[in-house]
Write a structure and sequence with these properties.
18% of the residues lie in helices and 35% in strands. It has helices at residues 9-23, 97-105, 142-145; strands spanning 27-33, 58-64, 70-74, 79-84, 87-93, 110-114, 119-126, 130-135, 148-150. The longest helix is centred in the first third of the chain and has 15 residues, at 9-23.
């Protein structure tokens, strides 16, 4: 499915704020602006504020209150890292972040257990044919335990 295009970090943060308002969640945003402040800059020289093309990169870290614990780090490179109760989903396209959060808060996200290979997986389906899943490396939180869809074994 094609998600609405979010061309800037600010547009993603605005979409996250709208979802937080819908869900009545507190939101805290930390902005890092400039090549010397963002976390994944490899193309700029030391102490350079702008990229070689003259652009000013903008990265944001968003914490959402409530359960589950959710944080979103929006990178200038058109992707994001979404962490749900300690489970990191890397390389989520910037445009998919609102759908990802709606899936988590809308009850579509679930946990699947497998006997072999053993483990629990947090699965976040998005509208269309897009699904994100990551291995749960820590124990299941109460939120995750309430969303187990299949029994191990």
């Amino acid at each position: 499915m094609t998600h609405p295009h979010l061309p800037t970090t600010e547009s993603v943060v605005a979409a996250i704020r709208a979802i937080a308002d819908e869900q009545r969640l507190e939101v805290e945003v930390t902005d890092d602006i400039g090549a010397d402040r963002t976390s994944r800059r490899t193309s700029s020289g030391v102490f350079a504020v702008v990229d070689p093309d003259g652009s000013l990169p903008h990265e944001a870290y968003v914490e959402l209150g409530g359960s589950p614990s959710v944080t979103v780090r929006v990178y200038p490179e058109d992707d994001a890292q979404v962490t749900v109760d300690g489970v990191q989903f890397d390389d989520v396209p910037r445009d998919a972040v609102p759908a990802f959060l709606r899936s988590v808060y809308g009850g579509l996200a679930h946990v699947k257990g497998r006997f072999f290979p053993p483990g629990w997986w947090l699965v976040v389906p998005l509208p269309g044919d897009e699904t994100y899943k990551e291995l749960v490396l820590v124990g299941l939180t109460p939120w995750m335990s309430a969303r187990v869809r299949s029994k191990r074994g």
